[in-house]
Amino acid sequence: RRARYRLGVDVGGTFTDIVLTHVEDGTVHTAKVPSDAARPASAVAEGVAGALARHGVDAAEVEHFAHGQTFALNTVLQRAGARTGLLVTSGFPDLLEIGRLRLRDPIDFFAAPRRPLVDRADVREVDERLRADGSVERPLDEGGLLAAAEALVADGVQALAVSFLHAHAHPEHERRAVELLRAAHPGLVIVGAAELWPEEKEYERTTVAVLAAHVAGLLGGYLGELFDRLRALGLRCPLYIAKSNGGVMSLDTGSDEILRAAVETLLSGPAAGVAGAIRLAGAAGVDRLITMDMGGTSVDVALVEDDIPYSTDSVLGDFPLIIPTVEISSIGAGGGSLVRVDSSGVLKVGPRSAGAVPGPAAYGRGGTDPTLTDAYVVCGFIDPEDFAGGAVTIDPRAAYASLRPLARRLGLTVEQAAAATIDVTTAMMHAQLVPLLARRGLDATGSHLVAYGGAGPVHAALLARSLNIRRVLVPWSPGTLCAFGALATGLRQDVVASIGETTATLDDARMERVWKDLAEQAHAWYARQHTAPYQRPELRRWADVQLVGQSFTLPVVLPDGRPPTVETLRSLFADAYRAAYGVDASDGELDVRNLRVTLTAPGDPRLPAVAAGPAGAPREHTVHESGERRRALRLRRAELPVDATVRGPLVVSAPDTTVFVPTGAAARADALGNLLIDLDPDRDPATGQDNDTDDRRGP
């Protein structure tokens, strides 16, 4: 009988991560291969072909392929997509330039303003105007529209976005304009803002359309080539791509979906990582967690209570995103962040990074500037004899040499300077994470810190201790968790309708009609997907609500079983407002800005079966914690049997990461392949009293 496999891939800027799991017995194989920005689809296909060949798997045996990527994100951040033109209602050519009239930094009056993705010279006005009630003030000048587009194309514009006033509610003019432009320029990417995301807020809606136009051509070319190459390898299964909202969508549903994919996959890889972390943590019985994805340049964190956290007002570089995305914040520095002493004699870490080339000095690739990774090496938090499964050779002398000038300036030994670098990095993360927790009203002490990415498990216990978090969970393969997340998550689609009505005029019938229409849109999207690998779809209704006169909304989720009435909305909003602000708002008139529907179809609930290796004897090691030299142990991850506990200081090496367990903490492997770190192993969580425990120093 033919074997059955599932294949997950995540394409990062430096490495492409691959996870291959056997459907029946759960056997899992992982691989990391170099990414290639110049030929991304070829690099992915070659990596997949190599992984399949290495494990003797026929491509036809793969029944599910899911793909996360940072291709679209990097295209936006580097502004490397198509030169984009914008067509707007006459009188609004400065829509993107004006934005929201907010300073980038409220206390920096000299901060540079956000730079639009469309040059002012590439914006054209179109004579048309619909009023807020849908009545026509000026009909669409079709000839003027086509002439404006022709002039932009003749000037070298490669894609067009169309955004007319009030089109989110009354799309007739904008829809007709897009129809005319696509007929006149069939080879050009044409994006209608309301067609893509029909929500009020014309600046944000226009930005979404511009992002899609900027990225769609390159992303469509990449996905098309990837699709063809995977088919040429022999893959016959449906292909899926991870979305920014933590779900996936089908890759082969037609060109119309590429416009949505261009903006809905901007945070594809990071969102898949959060989804994967939640899946693994849930299987381990953990529902409150802080995810920590630490790579070479930054740390991405998400605060999770029960389910994936979402945001409808996130920011990506210079650009606001109103489409629902997993709420991820970047804090602190990554493993490749450069370390320096500023003109005031203050030790600084980041934001500049050594990148993959030359990388940290310890990698021996020509880098001489000190990085956080070099500090880890000097302090012994990384085992130089067993790093990245032997794929990278660590040169401790180069790490010492890179930090020596910095130590001299600080009047410290090299070991003290390295420890100070790590302490400063921890303090940076702490200082940026605490306000995030405060804004959500969360207490970190009851959460688990889930650490992944190449550098996350090295630093996780130190950050957890600073936040009074007792437990850290390191997944079975932290370096490939984003690839696993793309494979493990389900289909998800968000649809929205802006209604902008107060509870004085909004009636139950109107609200029910809008929600019914949104549900039909969501089900129509679901029907276009290849749904075999996923469970039955579920719908969730929610609304963006505020008190009349206020400027910011609260999300109100309508639970199953509650009638979709205005009175239900009042009650739920009062509860949400009280929880957020501690104020009773039950008597206030409400302003219902948006109604939303989210469709989810959960993925395969099975987890990979991670085999434990034979117990190994820990080896002697030396670490420097807070400048003090201490005896420690080191071992390989596969040498730690299930439920065996080892006390820190301890360095655990794995093919895709290193885990550091500090003094006073203990590490234990669970049956799912996770490594659990307890920062206070002698204290009973129920009583708060110290236990009499066996202080074992080995498995």
| Tally of helical segments | 16
What is the SS-derived class? alpha+beta
Helix content: 25-40%
Shape: globular
Largest sheet: 8 strands, mixed
Low-confidence stretches are 692-699
The percentage of residues in β strands lies in 25-35%
| Overall strand count | 34
Mean pLDDT: 89
Give an overview in words:
With 699 residues, this protein is of the alpha+beta class. Among the domains are: 1-59, no CATH class; 81-216, Rossmann fold, CATH 3.40.50; 337-424, no CATH class; 491-601, 2-Layer Sandwich (Dna Ligase, domain 1), CATH 3.30.1490. It is 31% helix and 26% strand. The strands form nine sheets. The protein has an eight-stranded mixed β-sheet, with helices on both faces. The protein has a six-stranded mixed β-sheet with strand order 3-2-1-4-11-12, with helices on both faces. A hairpin with a 5-residue loop joins strand 20 (337-341) and strand 21. The chain is globular, with a radius of gyration of 26 Å. The protein starts with a strand and ends in a 21-residue tail after the last strand. The relative contact order is 0.10.
Briefly, what is this?
This protein is of the alpha+beta class. It is built from 16 helices and 34 strands.
